[in-house]
Amino acid sequence: MTTLQYSRPSSWQGVPLQVTTPRSSISIASGDTFGVIAIIEGTRYKYLRGRNDNVEQLFDLDSPEGEAQNLAKVPMAQALLSKMRGLHQALE
């Protein structure tokens, strides 16, 4: 909409992903899942958590696997998972 120079409806919330911002993280939500996308040490990550079941997902968006490999269950990624949880809680 920004590219087409349309105004954002007043009922919409958030920041369009096409608009450049100085942020290193953004809060995201869709249906019963919410989370955060963040750049940490130059790498883009996505953290998701189910509203009802609290199931966590963590993805390295810059890796070849992208969203095909859930890092939330990988022991070596637990420090990163903790950091993304903290970012998510700060943005809620």
Brief summary:
The chain is α+β, with helices and mostly antiparallel strands and 92 residues long. The chain is built from one helix and four strands; from the N terminus they run ββββα. A hairpin with a 2-residue loop joins β2 and β3 (43-50).
Tell me about this structure.
The chain is of the alpha+beta class and 92 residues long. Helix content is 15%, strand content 29%. The mean pLDDT is 86. It has one helix at 78-91; strands spanning 25-30, 33-40, 43-50, 56-60. The protein contains one helix and four strands.
CATH names the topology as Arylsulfatase, C-terminal domain
Helix/strand/pairing category: alpha+beta
- Read across the widest sheet, the strand sequence of neighbours is 1-2-3-4
**What is the CATH class designation?**
Alpha Beta
Rounded average pLDDT: 86
- The tally of strands reads 4
Topology:
Layout: E1 25-30, E2 33-40, E3 43-50, E4 56-60, H1 78-91
Antiparallel strand pairs: 1-2, 2-3, 3-4
Features:
92 residues; Arylsulfatase, C-terminal domain; 4-stranded antiparallel beta sheet; 1 helix
